[in-house]
Each structure stands twice: as structure tokens, then as C-alpha cells.
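Inputs:
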Amino acid sequence: MSNCIVWTLWSFLLTLLVLVSPGLAEVTGTIEQKDPKTLCLDIKITKPAPSTAIITMDVPTDVTVNKSEPNYSRVSKEKGQIQWLLKDIKPGTTKIVVSFDKDIDLQKLRVIIRYKDASGNTIESEIKKK
Amino acid sequence: MYSSLPQTVRLDSKKIKKIREERGLTQLYVATVVGVTIDTISRWENKRYPSVKRENAEKLAQTLEVDVEEILEKLPQEDTDENGEALEQQEQDSSRTAQSFPNNQHKKRVAFFVTAIAAFFAMAGMMAGYLVFRPSSLSLDIDALRCLPAHSAPGALFPVLIKIDIDPKAKRTVLIKEDIPRILKILKAVPKYTSLEKGLLKWIYQGETSNLRFVYVANMPSSIKENKRLRFKGTVTIKTDQTVSVGIGGNNRIVSAPFHWADKNMDNRIDDEEILDAYELLSGTSGMNKLLKEVETLWAADMYQWDQKIRKYVPVKNN
């Protein structure tokens, strides 16, 4: 019977911890090559969504963005870096389609998502390649 | 005669069977004479439950026409139930009793889990009941924090956020008093302040919201000397069935310096971390688009400079 009480107390405490712990925001994504010059990013945002997130794509310095939907917020040709500032984001999926003037190797790219969680900590995660 | 025997004795099952067969007695006969079921006799002979009540052992001995000592197991008794009654009762029952031994364990496990689950829900119910029906006169837990930039350029605008977290939820009146340096000009406040007199900004709020946000935009005077420190002081007073007053914590001073308020490390650049902080501070507050747009423009540029003549931050291309 004492085992029963201990088991019950532990379950109760664990359940309470799960219930009272705040939900953590999560922004994840995948990147896919649509054609040799076009990339498609799917950004998934879970509740509670952060207000803002920055997507940073490191590309070879010799490529130029021909078109981006939505438009990029910042580009540095010297650094080979393109950035999108996602504002007023809501839970759900956001798509970014970007095409370049040259063929691009998806495996050589690095895409990072950066945002603040509910506690104010900066979360940085790399977007998975499909 | 056999009073020296304990209440419960252990039978020698093989011997019982042997004597019964030698005497040509059937299990039915023995069971009838002793007053138990055939299954019980069968169990005694198969050593499933060898412990029996002394009286039954005596009756069995009489039926088999032997001394009771002859049918008792010679080994010392170990697993004898002190009470004996329960065991005997089991023996008196049908053979189902023997087969139900694993079932009893299963029943015990089920009972264990049912008890555990019932206890869990009872505790959860008590906790929920406490949270729902706890008296409103519990002491208020108030957290008031000012998010004030560390610096701003003379003549530039900067935002100030006062965050108030109150627990528990209850209808209440909140009075916020923010004592700001008189040389500052308040251009905007969200929500609109109730009064502003002689550098004392006041809001009065009535409602049940637990997380309150008060934002105002101030203008650092262009005439102010560089590195001049300005101090802020504020209090939050909350009235429910009691009145509680706390000071506003957080940063309480700002310095005049030729750097943007969002440029925390004063390196003439707004980096990713700083723009995220700026958006976290102001997003969700209406009327802050102009300030945020300025931050975004400076972030998108490589660097910026404060132009004192035009009183603006100017993006600079880094080459």
C-alpha cells in the first residue's frame, strides 16, 4: 500500500509539473530544392508563437537573388547572406520561395532560424534539408 | 488427546493418499466423513494446500483409522497461517479457490491501480478546487518591471515599457504612477495616460487582466548634454479587498549618448539579437510601428550614425 501512495504522489507531482510549465514556442523549418535555381522554405510555427523571427541563409558569394517571395529584409553580397525578418507571426506555416541567377547546391547551404522564446532566451536552430 | 498440536497442521499428502488407497476408501467417502469437498481431499493429497485446521486433521486421521501423527508432515512448519481460519476456509471452498490464487494476485494489482488512480484524481480534484475556490483575500503577488533603454541620442525618441503581473485574477483597480524627469517630453502613451502633471505620469486601470503593459514614447531633449543621466521612479498601487503598493523595478535610468536605444552594445549596429529584443519589447503595442520601422531600417543597413543636425539616425553602408 505504501508503494501505491508513493506511486500516486509521484504521478501527481509530475502531472502538476507538466500542467504548470509554460508552453514553449517553437519555430522549425525544412528547405527543399524546387529546381536547380529555386529553393522553397517551409517554416512551421507552434503556439505560443514568438512575435518575430529571423531566417538567415548563407549562400555562395557569387550568386544573386533574382526573386524572393516574400521579399528578403536584408542581403549582404560580401558575406553571402540573405535574411528575412518575419514579423507579427502567427502559429501555422509560412512559405518562402527564393530563386537565384545560378544553379545552387542545397547541400552547401546553411539556413538558421533565430527567435526569442517566452522567457526571452534566444533560440537558434538549423533548417533541415529535404 | 491431541491438544499438543498447533491450531494448524501440515499434512503428509503422499501418506494420506497411500493410507486411503490401502484402506480402499474413495475420496468421496473421506470427504463426506471429514465434512469437506472431494476437491479439498484431492488438494490435500496433491500437496497444494497442505496446511489444515487441527480438527480436520484429527477427523481425517479417524476416518483413515490412524494416529493423527502418522498423517502429519514431519518437517517443521514454516508457512502456517497463525489464524488458520482463513486457510481452512480456503480448503473448505471448491477447487475454484486453488485456481483463483493467480486471480487473487491479479485482483490485488487491479485494486492497487484503482486505488492509485482514485487517489490521484482525489488529489487533482482537491488542487483544482483550491485553485477555483480559494479566497480572493489571499495576498496579492505583484511584479512591476520597467523596461527602459540604457541610452538614447539627444533629440531622439525612445520607448519605455512598464510590465505588471498580478496574481490572483480578480477585479481590481490599478494606479500606476511614473515619475519621469521633467525635461522629457511624452509623445505617446499606450494606453493613453490618465494624467500628466509636473513629470508625474498616471494611469488608472480597472479590470481583471493579470498581465498589464503600459508603453510610452519619450523624447530626449536635443539640448541635453552627452552622458547626462536621467532617473525614473514609479509605483503601482492595487486595490481589491486590500490595498497593496509596490515600486516599479527594472532599469531606472537612461543616459544621453549618440546611440540608438535598441543598440544595446553601442557599436553603431543593430544586430539580430537587438532587433529581436526591440520587437519583443514593442510588438503587440499599437502605435509603435514608426519606432520599429526605424529599428528595421538600421538593422538592414550595415551600420548607422546619429546625425545631431537633423536629429536622426542615418544608415551607413560599410565598405
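Strands of chain A lie at 27-35, 38-45, 52-58, 65-69, 74-76, 81-87, 92-100, 110-116, 122-126, 128-129. Flag for discussion at group meeting.
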